Queue: 2 jobs
Job 1
Amino acid sequence: MSGQTNLSELLKALSPALLPDDYVFVFVKGLTFDDLQPLSPISVFIEEQGMSLILKQKIADLYGYSYTGVFKCITLTVHSSLEAVGLTAAVSSALAERNISVNLVAAFHHDHIFVNEHSAEQAMLTLQALSKEERNKT
């Protein structure tokens, strides 16, 4: 299954789910993929400067990594295609209207939105309203 590409259908079926853990973004240099196993990162991105990791806050604290903010993850449970056009823009715009900063990670099946822990409830309400508004158009 390759996922949904129709923006209207994606918005109707967003079904955002707020994950219970707190997450942080950390930057590391000099680690190998073998070194990452005990950290259980949910995301790894390799940049020229080093690795950016998304970790559960409790793991980052355990290993002494520094970070600047604590985030909640909202998973859009609709199976979106990596070829879908407009979902990131629609979600980002709706949250920006509420002055909510968004860090979005697209994975194979779902999109995952990281928002400041203090904005999580408002972000959930905003995404639910966006989905409801799209369902009411038909």
Job 2
Amino acid sequence: MQTSDFPKNTPTLVTNRLILRRFTSDDVQAIFEIMSDPQVNTFLPLFPLKTMEEAMEHLKTQYLDRYHTEYGFNYAICLKTDPKPIGYIHLSTDEAHDLGYGLKKAYWHQGIMTEAARALVRQAALTQIPYVTATHDVNNPYSGAVMLNIGMTYCYSYREMWQPKNFLVTFRMYQLNLCNKNQPIFSKYWDMFPDHFIETF
């Protein structure tokens, strides 16, 4: 799939409780609060942000710049009652079409991420994106629950020396087929990491 198949401007999405919108430069404080929390950061592929300068750089490179140069979905998650972002959710434009997300601890276990992910996947299904994948650390089952809640299917597990934190992680890979229900399982991680297997639950 070509990147031109993605929407150029991340369309605002509205759910029962949420507004998913593009980040703006005014959201730097919110980014800092989300990404500096060690508990929120535990399962993220980067270290906690330590300064507002780091927060602005993260906001710029991960969101603001991409709105001008890339196609795709990169959202701030906001409550309808408050415009300040409480989390983020995005879908990568590479061959994995990887779903990633994070949420402030105060809003965990309220179904918010499931609600946001369902909205994003519904929007993705309107494009030519054939499937969505997602992975989670086996020690983070709540992330896996979001994947199951939006209809994703467990495919396989693999072990990776995770960077930049440099420790061994067992990941579970999930997939949701969109425009082609017979889409084969995305096998890149299976092929890349020799320590792979299928778990039984």
